[in-house]
Target: Enoyl-CoA hydratase/isomerase family protein
Amino acid sequence: MTVRVTAEDGVAVVTLDRPDRHNAIDLDTADRLAAVWRELRYDDAVRAVVLTGAGGRAFSTGIDRAARVPQPPSPYSVDDPLLTIGPKANDLWKPVVAAVEGMACGGAFYLLGECEFVVASRGATFFDPHTTYGMVSAYEAVLMAQRMPYGEVARMSLMGTAERVSARRAYETGLVSELTEPGGAVAAACRAAAVVAAYPTGAVQGTVRAVWAAREAARDRALALAPHLIALGNLPAERQAALFEGRGGGGYRLR
Model:
């Protein structure tokens, strides 16, 4: 199972469980995540959710580069399996708290962008490798622009693999709301989720929806441009592959 779900006292813990692949998301994992969010919509015993990654080395490194995503021949459309992996994309309005240990990069921001807030250990790092490999950071940059100041998002998105945002810097710029000692992110996120889960459900979900609505108009307009920017700005697939092969054997340089 690529995604594990446990629940106790009103809080579900959703764990990306591919530690050998840095919890990268393949097509099966993407489908499973979408299914989990839809299932949680109907589980009245769950009133808040914590999202994390197994193994401690990474929350997630985004799309698994080994995954083969079929694309339509039309230059006017792009199929992106990560667009449907988040809770909001699946109409879940129960609060979701992210717990980050290790790396969170690239497509992981699709998930972090749809969580209410982020708890991270002091050893966590955040980066966006797209430009390094000749790809446009579009969806990721838009989602992070709603959590971080413009200059911080621009620097992270443009610097690619050359820089990583530390947990401390992420806390200072608002991406992270609480820092913990290494190994403590899930426990801290569960404590926060338990507090929220104890409150009246209607009030909590209404508040989640209201806060999201404050971001929605600008977000939707920006995301509407994303597929066009990707189609225009991405290097051809064969040139992307050459860049990956030249930087560590076909994947992000993560170590």
User: Anything to note?
Assistant: The chain has eight helices and ten strands. The chain has a mean pLDDT of 90. The first strand starts at residue 3 and ends at 8. The CA atoms of residues 53 and 59 lie 4 Å apart.
